[in-house]
Amino acid sequence: MSLTVLVPENDVVPPSPDVPRRAAQWTPPLDAEGLWSVLERIKNWKPLDMEEVFDDLDTTIGNHPPPVATTGALVDRLRGHLKQLSDIAVADEQYPPTAEMVQLVARGAPLRQERTPTDYRQAVSLTRRLAFVTSDLVEELIEARYIKEAE
């Protein structure tokens, strides 16, 4: 009795070594340095906290100017909020930003790059300019349903 093997028509049969390959060999999209860069960015990523954004906006635009001791840290936090919100506004190509969002992102870019002044009044001025752009961008993003308002 001889053994025979039945191979269905749709079974995958490996090509013989004589046949040239049609698909190119896969190469990873990133090298080791690129992967480390991605890992560091993931480790340093901080999710957007709308309560913190609103607290910082209230501290800046509220009835009293921010305290002298916290103005520098407040500027840095507002820059971070504005950067995150700007990234959200332009991140998805399927849902392009509105003209107002584009304008606010453009207005915020030089403010994020501006050096923090050593003079208290100038620093408060910068915090307020950052806060007004951030506040307007938050309103636009909530209206367009890109983000949800904090409960």
Please tell me about this protein's structure.
With 151 residues, the protein is mostly helical. It has five helices and no strands. The N and C termini lie far apart (78 Å). The relative contact order is 0.13. The model has no long low-confidence stretch (mean pLDDT 87).
List keywords for this structure.
151 residues; mainly alpha
Distance between the termini: 78 Å
Q: How many β-strands, per DSSP? A: 0
What is Rg?
Answer: 27 Å
Mean residue pLDDT: 87
Q: Note the total helix count.
A: 5
- Taken as a percent bin, the fraction of beta residues is under 5%
Q: What share of the residues lie within helices? A: 55-70%
Unreliable residue runs = none
What shape does the CA trace take?
Answer: elongated
Give the topology string: H per helix, E per strand.
HHHHH
Structural class based on helices, strands and sheet pairing: mainly alpha
Largest beta-sheet characterization: none
SSE blueprint:
Layout: H1 32-44, H2 50-61, H3 71-90, H4 99-113, H5 120-143
At a glance:
The chain is mainly alpha-helical. It is built from 5 helices and no strands. Helix 3 runs antiparallel to helix 4 and helix 4 runs antiparallel to helix 5.
